[in-house]
Each structure stands twice: as C-alpha cells, then as structure tokens.
Amino acid sequence: MGLDTLYPARCLGCGEVVDGDYGLCGPCWRDTAFVGGTICDGCGTPLPGDASDPDEVLKCDRCLSYPPPWSKGRAAVMYRDTGRKLVLALKHGDRQEIAQPAGLWMTAALGTIVPVQALILPVPLHWRRMIRRRYNQSALLAKALARRMQLDWAPDVLQRVRPTPSLDGLNRIERAAALEDAIRVNPRRRHSIAARPVLLVDDVMTSGATLRACTQACLNAGSGPVQVVTLARVDMMALAREGKDH
After folding, report:
1. Are 184 and 212 in contact (CB under 8 A)?
2. Quick one: which H or E segment has residue 74?
3. How far is CA 209 from the centre of its chain?
4. pLDDT tens across 133-150, in order?
5. pTM: predicted TM-score of the whole model, two decimal places
C-alpha cells in the first residue's frame, strides 16, 4: 500500500481528496478569483473593460488620487471566497503548506515585470507577534516566490521596531499614523539593498498602508525602485460601494 493511499492529497481549500499535493478541487478552484485581464498597474486591482493596448499603463482611481511610492504592484487572487479562506488559513491556521502554491500564483501574477537583480523582502512582523504566531506568513510567501523566480530573498532586512495595532476600520490618515516610524531597514543590512531593486511581499493588500511604510523605508535607505506583490487583494471598490472604505 503506497503513501498516496494512506495519505491522499487534499484540497487546500476544503480538504477533499485531489489528484496532487498543493492543489484545489474543482469547486474551490472555481471559487478562487484569480486576478487577470485589465488591472491597475499600481496596486493590481482588476479594472472594468478590456485594455486595447497591452502596453498601456492603467491606474485605478485610488492610485491616481493617492499614488503609491512603489513603481508596480500585483496580486494573485481577490480576497474573497476561497482566496480569503486560504489567506486566513495561512495567517492564523498554521497552514504553512499554502505558501508553496501561492508562490506559483504570485509568480504568474508578476509575469516579467521584476528585474533579475531584484531582492525579495517580506513585510516584517514585530517580535512579540512572531513569538505568538511562530512564523511570518509573508516570509513563507517570499521564500516560495524566490524559489520559483530564482531570485535572492532576505527575511531580516526590514524590521518592525514597534508593535502596531490592527488597521481594520481606520481611515487612510489613521493607518499612516499607526505605522509612522514602525518599520525600518536593519542598519546592519542597509548595504544589501543599496541601489538594488526590491520586491516586497505580503499576504494581503487592503489600503496598502503597510506596504507604503515598507516601501518608504527601503527608498529612504537608498534602495532602487520598489515593486510589491501580495497573495490577495481586497476589492476596495466593493468596500466603497458598501460604505466601508475610509
């Protein structure tokens, strides 16, 4: 009796038996909103309509009115249905194996926009939260992505030097204030990003406040241009329609 019989591969979303490891069953795959088509070049959110020119740079209203400090942003899935379930399982459910397929999806979302000399950096956790959670989900994603893309990565370049509260329910100004001076480049590792392109990795982007703080820390330390990628993207236009976007 083989191991596949004793321990059959299970769907990452619902636990049903699937053909291969790190896969999704048919229903969970259908309920995963992979980001594609016309997207904002700044934050990766889907845009309505079809771009007639594939080389045309499009921006959502948020990125036009409040431009991010990074040069390009991408996301693999939307933060709903199976996508939301996977993010929460990775972040709070100790489902570290989810990082492997997520690395594949994020690689596909990035396409060819990342320079070959880029250094991949995860968004850092404060040490107290790291002790409670035992791992940084963004670092797991960064490691999986670096393996897929054959790029260097470094988990210790960015530091969260003070704990930050939950950003849920805060408006843009309040989020920025909560993160002020909370994230910096490790003084001992500044040389590793000097004039070098950086790819920041996080599990989910909502307002982008945390990624803004990380990007600014890299730029202030003398890095090259910064790009960002997340496993999931919250639909800010949907939140605005529901009156939940501050």
Report:
1. no
2. strand 72-78
3. 13
4. 899 999 999 999 999 999
5. 0.91
